[in-house]
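Retro notes, item 3 of 5
We never archived the inputs for the flavin mononucleotide complex last cycle. Fixing that now. Sequence and ligand:
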Amino acid sequence: MEERKLFIPLLLGTNRQGRHSEHVAKWLLSRVDERPDIETQMFDVRDFHLPYDHYGQEIKERFPEWRDAILRADGLIIVTPEYNHGPPAPLKGVLDLLLREYIHKAVGFVAVSQQVWGGTRVIESMVNMVRELGLAVTFTDLNFPRVQDKFSQDGNLLDEAYNARADAFLQELIWMATTLRWGRVNVPSKYH
Ligand SMILES: Cc1cc2nc3c(=O)[nH]c(=O)nc-3n(C[C@H](O)[C@H](O)[C@H](O)COP(=O)(O)O)c2cc1C
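Structure as it came back at the time:
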């Protein structure tokens, strides 16, 4: 098995002022950073400034850091709140910038909501979409229901149970990312 660390960027999916998802993303990033087997990098949809008069593939050259990260990535973590049972528009816009770059890589979802369902519905609404990007979805999600109660104002996690949940989430993502990396290297495909 290859020794190189897995590269798994994290994408924070909302640009809402006062977003609680930012606490979740930063906390998870710090958990990932502690691991010896993963390298990560955080991307924030707030930094993309997507124009509305162009779409997807035509403008991806304007975001080379994102393109290069996904080209190199073995997987992706998406942290998204649930907005009307779907993703925030900027998250869809950022994901749509690329296509072939995602193929045969793993994606794990972290979903956030104000109410008790913890973003299960936004994940389910996005599975079809990421499948079309060629990403392979893990089945161990990380859900934050009532996210407003889970962190202090300065972003410290208040519920210790999430440490074990994050480990389970990452373990599954690592398995998928490792397996798919082996497949990309060793199993012929027209995509890589
Ligand atoms: C446009 C919009 C739609 C929303 N729709 C839902 C929803 O469908 N289900 C839900 O549980 N919360 C919904 N919420 C509340 C979010 O879950 C809440 O903002 C939460 O704090 C997580 O997202 P945040 O990162 O924006 O803070 C919605 C919020 C906005 C701004």
